[in-house]
Amino acid sequence: HVQLVESGGGSVQAGGSLRLSCGASGYASSPYCMGWFRQVPGKEREGVAYIERDGSTRYADSVKGRFTISKDNAKKIVNLQMNSLKPEDTGMYYCAAARWPLGLGCMFASSYGDWGQGTQVTVS
User: Fold this and answer.
1) With bands split at pLDDT 50, 70 and 90, how would you rate the model's confidence at 124?
2) What whole-number distance in Å separates Cα of residue 64 and Cα of residue 9?
3) Which of 28, 53, 64, 70 is the most exposed place for a label (fewest CB within 10 A)?
């Protein structure tokens, strides 16, 4: 069965950096897109960044220029490098995979069928 496992969350002061990683296993082929989402209590899960099978990337306006998503196909890992962190970046971060193009596109949670368990990021 498929599995996504996130790591790398933690607590950091504003202006600091964190690197999240998502290990994917059980996929017969590379997912159509893989994304990072974040959620805070009482709010909907929002798209942060995604990377498509061909390597194309897209970012939420709130993280452009600060976050970088990348993938290592050989290791089946997707990374999210987060720099210049702000308190508003605090939240539970989830890795997700969409095996086929669905829904509204890769920036929307409803397009994804596979999710990791999440890793907490706290910026103070």
Assistant:
1) very high
2) 19
3) 28
